[in-house]
Structure formats: C-alpha cells, structure tokens
Design brief:
- The complex is a heterodimer of chains A (about 70) and B (about 500).
- Chain A has about 70 residues and is mainly alpha-helical.
- Helices cover about 70% and strands about 0% of the residues of chain A.
- The longest helix of chain B has 21 residues.
- The chains are: A mainly alpha (about 70), B alpha+beta (about 500).
- Chains A and B meet through helix 2 and helix 3 of A and strand 2, helix 9, helix 10 and helix 11 of B.
C-alpha cells in the first residue's frame, strides 16, 4: 500500500524543476521502517518467552468453571 | 465499589492436578508467609495437618487423601491488612479488593491483588513440585469460564427495573472499551477468529440470579453487605478480567457514572438494544467495530456510537445535576472515556497501548503477518493465553509493559504499598488497620464486621461495620493511632 502511493509521487517530484520536495516521502519511508523494526524487536522479545510446543501447552490448560 | 478476580490456575508439568487443591495450597501459603499472628482467623490456620517442621507445607498434591480434612479444601480464606480478601472459590483462587470510592483506587488495589497472587505462587513453591501459575483471564477456551466481578453500592430506592433497562445496553456495548480480547469463537472456542470479549459467549439470559450457568447480563444477587434498607450491592458478572490499567479504570469508572444517572432517574431515552444476548456476542465478534445494533428508538448504531450516547448523557447529567461542579475523579473518567471513544471510532489501533483487546489484537496481527498464521493456529491461542500469565518474565502483557508498549496510570510504589495498606476512605481502613495492629486479638473479619477476642471477655466481641463509608481514616484514624491494645480500642469504641 505504502509502496503504491510512493511511486507516483516520486515521479511527480522528478518532474519538478526544484528538488525541495523529496524529504516528506523519505521521512514516511523512514518512519515505516522504524515501525517495522520496532515490531520485529517486540516479536523477538516475545518469541523468547513463548512456551514451546504451543499446541500441547494450550491443550493442557484446562480449568473448571467458576462464577 | 470493589472488584473480585477468579484467577485461572495450573500446576506446571501436572496438567491433571486438582485445581481446588492447588488453589488451597496457594492461599494457605500466602497466609502462612505473611500473617503475623498464628492464631486462627479461619480454621485452616491452626489446623495444618501437612505442616512440615522443615518450614514448608507438604504439597496437597502429594499428600495422601487421608491426610486432608474437608476443611482443607475449598475453605481457605484470609482477610489481608489492605482490607482485601484472598480465598478459594470453586476451583479458583480469588482476590476481592477492599471497598474503594473511586476507579483509580480500584486500579491500585486490583493491581495490588495481582502482585499478592503472584507472591502467593512463590510462597507456595515446594521443592520437587510443579510451580503454580496464575492467569488473569476468564476462559480455558474449552467451555469453562470464571469471573471477574464488579460490585457497586446502589441506593435501595432505585427500582431494579430501571437498572435492567438502562444498564443492559451499556453492558452490551462497553466491551469495546474494556474487553480483554480472545482467540476462538463459541464457548469451547471451536470457531476460528478473534473476538473483543473473553466473557460474551458465556452469557445466555438477560436477567437472573445464577452466576455459574445460564449466566445473566444483569445479575440479581442481593446481598448488600451493608444496611439492606438503604443499599443494594449491584453484583456485575459480565466484565472481563483486565490487565491494562485504562481498561480496568474505565470499566468501573463509566459503570459507576451510569449507575449514578440511573439512581438520580436522569435517563429517559430508550436505548434498549434488541436481542441483547445475541447482540452482546455480535459486538464481541466484530473487532472492526462496524456491527450495527438496533436501538429501541428505531435507530441503528455501532457499539462505539452507543457508548457515545451514554457519554453525552453523562455530560449533560453532570452539567444539569451537578451544575458543572464536578469532582476531579469524575472529570478524569469523562476525559479518558471521551479520548478512548474518539480513537476507537477513528482507528481502534490507536488504543493499542491502553486497552487489553486492542493490544492483544495488534500483537496477534503482527504474528499473523510475520509468520503467516491462520486464526486456528495453536500459536495464536498460546499468545492469547500467555498474555494473561501473571509472571512478569512470562506474561505477554507484562512483556509489552516492560517494552514501554502499555500506558500506566499508577506507579509500582503505590501498588506495592496497597498490598499492605487499605484505602483510607472506606470501612476497609478500619478492617485493615485492625488486622495489622491488633492481629492477635482479631478472631475473624468480614465485609461488615470485625470480631475481637479480648482479654477479660468470655465471648467474642463483634464490631459491626455496616456502613461502607464509616470506619474511614477521618472517622477512626485517631482512635486507632491512640490505642496500642485492641482492648483499649474496643472500650473506646463502645463508650461512644
């Protein structure tokens, strides 16, 4: 999605005689990359603590009904 | 107001361990490790047939059945110095907060309860035995559900029909704010997908007395623990157990506001939702927040829009009935409620650092994106379950908190203090202070009394605490400070 939006914009910018405009697109890309890195880091942290063998673990969590 | 949390419990490495035995072991271990007095507050304290002189209790799991008395199972019950209660209910350990007057205090003493429960698992550790692990959730996704209840003091003069009429649509819609999120649809979780609420699929009727089967949206239990002429205690069983502080805060803060409006007969609009039980599930099964509810006056609106209706009513109520002279806690509830609804409407993921269901969904979606997982994948079910694990090193809510991904409303130090100290503005203050100061002379305590065993008195002396707002620090603080003995306190109290 972000890629699709970025492409036309860039070609439009290239047509401009001045090159003052590319900054916003780069900033968006940078922020998006930052965000992805953030999420990757979170998932890696969580990968480390997740119980191994998800299927058995989930299956063995059996509770009696309460209120 | 107050909350009760039934924790899910498992014994690691022993999936078939008896949960009642494990819960009893947990509560007894906390009592043994923390209570100063050795005398019986509840039977189990004096009668410890499995007490080992080496300093730990024999695990009930390994004890021969003949070593267990009936009293050992299901009756473990302690009142704590913070005014709370830790006990075994059915097959779960349960923590009830002390009585509080405002939602921020509920967050504080609710969080204190998580910490107490976590400490209890550590005290219960026995060499060679599986560790006890607690989950603050409401279902095992195999058909069993256990509760996270709220209690509100409501004026007896309020017609119960008004409560049912005006609170039901509120409860059907409020899950978009305070749902805890769940992977799996249906009571046994057989359907694939994510839903907003842990509890919604377990509700089967609109109004009723039961809490363990045929659960009702409005529970009619009438056990006020206060003067029944003046008050009823509205026992709310429909909420999810929350870890996110904003979820807990808004859950009780907005419900209390709506109840005030009902007490003051302010709500005249017909916001009744058609097919409330089915609608409750439809809202829960719609994390995109687009499902349209049919509201009594013929309009169709989303759950968020219905919450806005209540918000705007509350705004008008505060203006008209309180002349805009609104106490800061109420103002704060309004501010946060408005902020959350605004963002939910714009893009729910803007609430990912404040609301449980959104935080959980965002995490699940990240895993689905990265690993290409279907909703039926066991890993997603595991993430749902492990989100609620109380251990800071394993629980995923706690991991997100540690990574700065969840907003806090209260600090660790305030919560730490609340593990031992009661709120100062309710009768919990009297109960808690008596337990910490005169432990040797307290025979028992409950919500509406403290029972003293005093030198020179043949029988036990019961001090009733029937008014939830008396027994506060302002009321009895000086007396408690003044008297170093329970006898002195008792004589001063009865002389008044």
């Amino acid at each position: 999605m972000a890629q699709e939006q970025k492409q036309p914009r860039k070609s439009h910018e290239e047509d401009e005689p001045t090159d003052a405009a590319p900054a916003p697109a780069d900033a968006v890309t940078e922020r998006k990359e930052q965000l992805d890195e953030d999420i990757d880091a979170i998932l890696e942290d969580i990968d480390d603590v997740l119980e191994t063998n998800a299927e058995d673990f989930v299956k063995s969590f059996i509770q009696k009904g309460g209120q | 107001m107050g909350t009760e949390t039934e924790f899910g419990i498992s014994v690691s490495g022993h999936p078939h361990a008896n949960p009642m035995v494990a819960s009893t072991r947990l509560v007894n271990a906390y009592a043994t490790a923390t209570l100063k007095a050795r005398r019986a507050r509840w039977d189990f304290e004096e009668e410890s047939p499995l007490r080992d002189a080496r300093g730990f209790d024999m695990s009930r799991d390994v004890a021969d059945p003949s070593q267990l008395t009936d009293e050992d199972l299901g009756l473990a019950n302690v009142i704590l110095t913070n005014g709370a209660r830790l006990y075994v209910d059915h097959a779960h350990p349960e923590y009830s907060t002390p009585e509080c007057t405002n939602p921020m205090d509920i967050v504080i003493w609710d969080k204190a309860g998580e910490q107490i429960a976590l400490d209890a698992t550590r005290f219960a550790a026995v060499p060679g035995e599986g560790d006890l692990v607690l989950y603050k959730n409401n279902t095992d996704n195999k058909g069993a559900s256990y509760g996270a209840h709220e209690n509100y003091l409501v004026r007896r003069s309020t017609p119960f029909g008004d409560i049912v009429r005006h609170l039901t649509p509120f409860f059907v819609s409020r899950q978009v704010v305070c749902g805890a999120g769940r992977v799996g649809l249906g009571q046994d979780g057989h359907g694939d997908g994510f839903q907003i609420s842990q509890r919604a699929d377990y509700f089967e009727v609109e109004v009723g007395l039961e809490t363990t089967l045929k659960r009702p949206i409005i529970n009619t239990r009438d056990e006020p623990h206060a003067d029944p002429e003046k008050y009823r205690r509205l026992h709310v069983i429909i909420g999810d157990a929350n870890l996110a502080e904003t979820s807990t805060y808004l859950k009780v803060g907005t419900a209390a506001l709506v109840l005030s409006m009902i007490e003051d007969r302010f709500i005249t609009a017909d916001l009744s939702v058609s097919r409330p039980v089915a609608s409750l599930k439809e809202v829960s099964h719609d994390p995109g927040l687009t499902h349209l509810l049919e509201v009594g006056d013929g309009r169709k609106m989303t759950a968020v829009q219905l919450q806005w209706e209540y918000f705007h009513l509350a705004e008008r109520y505060l203006e008209e009935r309180r002349g805009g002279d609104v106490d800061p806690p109420t103002k704060d509830v309004m501010k946060r409620w408005e902020s959350v609804l605004t963002r939910l409407e714009r893009d729910p993921f803007e609430c990912a650092d404040e609301l449980d269901w959104v935080a959980k969904l965002k995490l699940l979606n990240s895993y689905r994106d990265r690993d290409g997982l279907a909703w039926s994948d066991a890993k997603l079910h595991l993430i749902d379950l492990q989100y609620a694990d109380l251990r800071p090193e394993k629980g995923l809510y706690h991991r997100l908190l540690k990574l700065g991904r969840m907003k806090r409303l209260v600090s660790d130090s305030v919560v730490e203090e609340a593990m031992h100290e009661p709120p100062e503005d309710t009768r919990a203050y009297f109960r808690g202070r008596c337990l910490s100061k005169y432990a040797d002379n307290i025979a028992a305590a409950s919500w509406d009394s403290v029972i003293f065993d005093l030198p020179g008195h043949e029988s036990l002396q019961r001090v009733p605490t029937i008014d939830p707002l008396r027994g506060s620090r302002a009321h009895v603080g000086a007396l408690l400070d003044e008297h170093d003995t329970a006898l002195g306190l008792f004589e001063a109290l009865t002389a008044r």
